[in-house]
Amino acid sequence: MKQLYINGSWHDGANVTVTHSPSDLSEVVGEYASAGNEQVELAITAARDAAEGWRNSGVQQRADALDKIGTEINERKAELGSLLAREEGKTLPEAIGEVGRAAAIFKFFAQEALRIRGDKLASVRPGVDVDVTREPVGVVGIIAPWNFPIAIPAWKAAPALAYGNTVILKPAELVPGCSWAMAEIISRSGLPAGVFNLLSGPGRIVGEALSKDSRVDAISFTGSVGTGSRVLAACAARRAKVQLEMGGKNPLVILADADLDVAVNAAIQGSYFSTGQRCTASSRLIVEEKIYPAFVAAMIDKLKSLKVGHALQAGIDIGPVVDKSQLDQDLRYIQIAKDEGAKLAFGGERLSRDTDGYFLNPALFVDCDPAMQHTREEIFGPVASVIPAKNYEHALQLANDTEFGLTAGICTTSLKYATHFKRHARAGMVMVNLPTAGVDYHVPFGGSKASSYGAREQGSAAVEFFTTMKTSYTGS
Q: Looking at the domain assignment, is residue 441 inside a domain?
């Protein structure tokens, strides 16, 4: 059994969680300790006790530790990628790519630890100097989702540590294995005891305690809108700093002047890769009427060529849905779409393979009305809806007609429309002739409206959440 990591040592939990591969339900991936109230108390106390020493640590110490973590993750990316594919269901190439991303994130923030900037300003008063510096927030609680089980913990933990915070990481119950592997690497990196702690366990125990405990100075959360709203309420009640990344119902606009191959490739990758289980997935394909029939026909042809199967099998394009609950949700929305009158042009049925897994044929609905329930609510599966648009102006209106605002994309050969869309799309990230899913680790990540709350994640922008500013005055 894999234990919890608290205050520099390994601990049993209150219970044990057994995980199974969504590609083969008979395969046990691992047994992991699950924290109860006692372990939560130990971890929060440890992080609080270690906070003062770590906030005053040298930046070279932080940089060396993070670089060492990134190096080992990268050296073991084939092994850890296999674990990720078995645990979450991403295809092996996608899983190895995610592990490589986690390694790059740690190495990026190793260098950011050496670049914590401040300002020295002249005061309006003669003989007075002003210094503006950044300081760690303190104890940071990280509540991570299941769909990126090593990249998201990395892109939250790495900046938190780089900027001098202590960390308590709660991975999703479905996928504790990758976070445990990351914690085991971190345990040998030279970080002092209590600086990093791993608490696998249920949200109602671990997540709730982190959100409500006054000794936890900040919460960084990625997950559903409902859970994020509860985290926000708990943090607001005690005036804790909070960062939320939640849902998306992302549009990909295809104009009549688009390169059809480019548009289809962007739509297929954005809508269906990673089994559609990405907050940045393209779930609304908004297509100008002139190219609508050709686009739908090309999408169906491409979908016919995709292979769905075991995540570790060579040549597979789409792995299984992560678990039964998510599969049931996908199938429920597929039925809702049918009942609403949307036309199912391809897929949408559960598939049988050599192993018993949660395999779903990617679904494409066409002739969808933007007011339909399935076009407005996040499904989080391999389901995309094609919505016709009269022209660019109508397409832009449809793209912005959502409560979410994480990412938006457009396929066009027109510089005029691409430039206008980048300015007027109501989303935190905009893609031109690219899938809406797929972002770089060294630039800001985040959205608007119901998708995000608080400071941006990733890149140098992460300093805004994981530090506070202090202004100091010195007289002569």
A: no
Q: Is residue 438 one of the residues assigned to a domain?
A: no
The domain that holds 413 is classified in CATH as 3.40.309.10
Decide: 150 and 95 in contact? Cβ < 8 Å. no
Residue owning tokens 């906070």:
51
Q: Which two tokens stand for residue 72?
A: 């080992």
Entry pTM: 0.96
Based on the domain organization, do 263 and 312 belong to the same domain? yes
> Could you say which of 88, 94, 245, 288 is catalytic?
245
Residues 14 and 153 both lie in one domain:
yes
**74 plus 157 within the same structural domain:** yes
Distance from CA of residue 242 to its chain's centroid? 16
Domain carrying residue 59: 4-246+451-475
- 207 shares its domain with 348: no
Helix (H) or strand (E) holding 63: helix 59-75
- CB within 8 A of 4, min separation 6: which ones? 10, 11, 12, 13, 33, 35, 39, 43, 197, 198, 199, 200
Residues 133, 256: one domain?
Answer: no
CATH number of 139's domain: 3.40.605.10
84 shares its domain with 97? yes
> Digits of tens for pLDDT over the chain (476 positions)?
999 999 999 999 999 999 999 999 999 999 999 999 999 999 999 999 999 999 999 999 999 999 999 999 999 999 999 999 999 999 999 999 999 999 999 999 999 999 999 999 999 999 999 999 999 999 999 999 999 999 999 999 999 999 999 999 999 999 999 999 999 999 999 999 999 999 999 999 999 999 999 999 999 999 999 999 999 999 999 999 999 999 999 999 999 999 999 999 999 999 999 999 999 999 999 999 999 999 999 999 999 999 999 999 999 999 999 999 999 999 999 999 999 999 999 999 999 999 999 999 999 999 999 999 999 999 999 999 999 999 999 999 999 999 999 999 999 999 999 999 999 999 999 999 999 999 999 999 999 999 999 999 999 999 999 999 999 999 98
What is the crossing angle of helices 292-305 and 260-272, to 10°?
Answer: 50
289 is annotated as an active-site residue: no
